[in-house]
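tool_call predict_complex ligand=Palmitoyl-CoA
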Amino acid sequence: MNFRLVDLSAEEIAQQLSVVEPLTDSVRGLIDAVIRTEVDDDELNAAREQIDAIVARLRTKQKPGSFGVQFTRELSGLSWGNAAVGARNGIAPPMRIVHHEDGRATCDVELGAAYEGPGGLVHGGVSAMLIDQLLGEAASVGNGLPCFTGTLTVKYLRPTPLGPLSMSAETVRREGRKIFVRGEICTADGPTVTAEAIMVSPKELPSRDQIMKLRAELAAQDGQG
Ligand SMILES: CCCCCCCCCCCCCCCC(=O)SCCNC(=O)CCNC(=O)[C@H](O)C(C)(C)COP(=O)(O)OP(=O)(O)OC[C@H]1O[C@@H](n2cnc3c(N)ncnc32)[C@H](O)[C@@H]1OP(=O)(O)O
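tool_result ok
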């Protein structure tokens, strides 16, 4: 697994996010505009040339592979490439604000044209991805144990319209490294999707000792600098 500790303070992270999140929102705007524009072919070709120039500009300095998951010294995860919540990922729905309280995770999200399956409705795979993320966060944060999805069961009760949605997830019970969670996606009229999952904290995650060793190495670097 691509796991790395980074030496960033909360202020430095906030500073980076203040630049990155508006850029990602602009990319989301681009995706939405490409889907819905009705300009003529010449305009489309001109737009493509401009987009290609921007891509070339960004590629002048680029990470190899994926973004990976970086952790701060305080063990906050910076999963900025994540498909569901990545702050740098324009494909990820704008699912940023996840509230955790008493083992329950909640989140509001507004899904536009980029998340369509049947006409005017949310794609079932998108619903599954979003609720999977929230279930995973409820299990991981609620129990202080980073988890992977082992089994996910999704029930589509009625079509989910594009637009504003609210989601919630909570732990039902824990058996060793297995955490049983359930959650739902709702419109103002009630749930459209319910889901259950068995989240498993993998035995091969970096151990607390390994994490502490990495933190000590960062502290030693501070001492030298
Ligand atoms: C510091 C704290 C805060 C951290 C704060 C971080 C926040 C972070 C938020 C993360 C939010 C992520 C939300 C998205 C989550 C993904 O999208 S994860 C990606 C999708 N999932 C995967 O790729 C998982 C692939 N599978 C695997 O890696 C491994 O099979 C697993 C699931 C980790 C299990 O491997 P393992 O640790 O070797 O498990 P193993 O020892 O064989 O079995 C342990 C127990 O789990 C059961 N089990 C194993 N596999 C499964 C399964 N697939 N289904 C059901 N049960 C299973 C076994 O039966 C066994 O049960 P018992 O015998 O103990 O009763």
